[in-house]
Amino acid sequence: MAMQTDNTVDSARKPNVIFKNRNLDETQESDKTQGSSGTQGSVADRHTKDNTGTQGNDSDRHTNTGLRNCSWKFYLAVSGALLGGGLPFGIAVGSMANTLSLVKEEFSSSDLVMSVLVSGNPIGGFLGVMMAGFLADLMGRKVTMLLNTVPFVVGSVLMATAPNMVVMVIGRVLVGAGVGVGSVVTNIFLSEISPVSVRGSMGCLYGVMLSTGTLLSFLLSMPQIMGASSLGWRLFFTLPTLTGLYQCVVVFFSPESPIYLASRKGNVDQARKSLSDYRVSVCEDELSTLQQCLDKGGDIQPLSFPELLSHRSLRLALLIGVGLNVGQQLSGINGVLSYAPLIFSQAGVSVPATATLLCGVVRILGALCGAALVDRLGRRTLMWGGFLVLCVTCFLTAGSQICADTITDSSTDSITDSITDSITDRNGSCQGRWTGIVAIVSILTYCFVVSATASTLPWVIVAEIFPMEARSKGLSVANATHWTFHTLAVLFFDSVDKALQPYTFLLFGGFMFFSFVAVVLFVPETKQKSVEEIAGELRKQADKCLPTVF
């Protein structure tokens, strides 16, 4: 991936915050001087002459930057990161749907205790993301992913062997913590090792694995497969152990992120070797990125949280990251996934279980579609277009539920009667057959669009809008927002639905329209742009706002 260190960070820092190795042997300075005079002093110039035989030709800068130029080590590292970071997320989301009643019966637990158990995943996720940024900066992306195997394995074993509900809750919180850490470090790692031309698509694969994990969890926990015995659900809860161990083995033999090695460690040889391991041939742009990281001082210091808030463009980036995650959760997707059969039933669908299964399949198709389009249409276009379509589908779903809940007033005039009779059943209800059809089409469209946009793009955009110094902490704050609102959505969706029914989806539609407006006004396009270019757009955007806003 062609990342460049953002020069806005210098202005974002306090005067006493400096790069540790700004005078890196003075050898680096001489390399810069030689490189600018046409010699082979700089990293980029040396490799460009050896491999391309051209210098200074802009048309050659983006050659060999796609997936065809990625080595087998790249694909192996991506598989380890996704299967160990994205798939367990989806499994954890869907793991309690079919097992909740069995666990409740096993331990004779109350509804309150079961609510605590279900909420253990997002609670653990919140704790995990708060640690993830610090760990990724301190120990590196690779080591953090290796250590993240521990909560997955320990938590899964505790849930599978739990003698009581207390151990079950502790195990689920640990699994949630692993999911939280993975949601941060996996996206950072993918964004830093991927070629810039496919950076968005690789980031969207995280959403694909999330949707796949949810569907896999639904299928494997079905009574026909898992059974109704205690042994069945206990074995099912060991599933994250397998994905965690796979990640541990694969990532152990994978190189560290070259951007991390250049920016945080200042090690040019290791950074070049790591990049060459992930590529068939390294292009000029990618080597120039490493050189710029070294020119910044080689050991870039991560910003503290106060420093993250000290510059307007970084505050805007933080607001965008937080806002996108809030919009994602206010779409109501987690509530829809948890209560899909009930929602379909409320709209008059006669086969809610089948329709719910279709939602899982459609989510995977949507995530794949988003991954295919994100580097063609751009993140911003897909994001505002997705929120706009979600607004429409929410209103259609609300309309189907309202009509299914409405009884025609017998005192209406003859003209109204004739119109109503054409869409109602013989009992005078306006549900008829069309409400079920509208509900199925609108909710399936809703699930498809959510997976293609709102569920995947925030992970991609947030990983791109922050400079190297602010990336880990920026992602931690944004993902902490995700998990906070995820917890609230799971806890209160049922209560809100009962209080507002049949108008619940009107509320979600309003949230989606507000999110659409916010994306149009504030979110920059990040497709195939360096961090420096994105930071420049954020500065311009922040300058348009009142000083009291950013």
Secondary structure layout:
Elements: H1 8-12, H2 27-36, H3 43-51, H4 72-85, H5 87-94, H6 100-107, H7 111-139, H8 141-147, H9 149-161, H10 165-193, H11 199-220, H12 223-226, H13 230-236, H14 239-252, H15 258-265, H16 268-278, H17 284-295, H18 305-308, H19 312-330, H20 333-346, H21 352-377, H22 379-405, H23 414-421, H24 434-454, H25 457-465, H26 468-500, H27 504-522, H28 531-544
Helix pairs in contact: 3-17, 4-10, 4-11, 4-14, 5-11, 5-14, 7-8, 7-10, 7-26, 8-10, 8-14, 9-10, 9-14, 10-11, 10-25, 10-26, 11-21, 11-25, 15-16, 15-17, 16-17, 19-25, 19-26, 19-27, 19-28, 20-21, 20-26, 21-22, 21-24, 22-24, 22-27, 25-26
Structure write-up:
- This protein has 550 residues and is mainly α.
- Helices cover 73% and strands 0% of the residues.
- The protein has helices at residues 8-12, 27-36, 43-51, 72-85, 87-94, 100-107, 111-139, 141-147, 149-161, 165-193, 199-220, 223-226, 230-236, 239-252, 258-265, 268-278, 284-295, 305-308, 312-330, 333-346, 352-377, 379-405, 414-421, 434-454, 457-465, 468-500, 504-522, 531-544.
- It is globular.
- The relative contact order is 0.15.
- The model is unreliable at 1-63 and 407-429 (pLDDT under 50).
Outline:
By secondary structure, this protein is mainly α. The protein has helices at residues 8-12, 27-36, 43-51, 72-85, 87-94, 100-107, 111-139, 141-147, 149-161, 165-193, 199-220, 223-226, 230-236, 239-252, 258-265, 268-278, 284-295, 305-308, 312-330, 333-346, 352-377, 379-405, 414-421, 434-454, 457-465, 468-500, 504-522, 531-544. It is built from 28 helices and no strands.
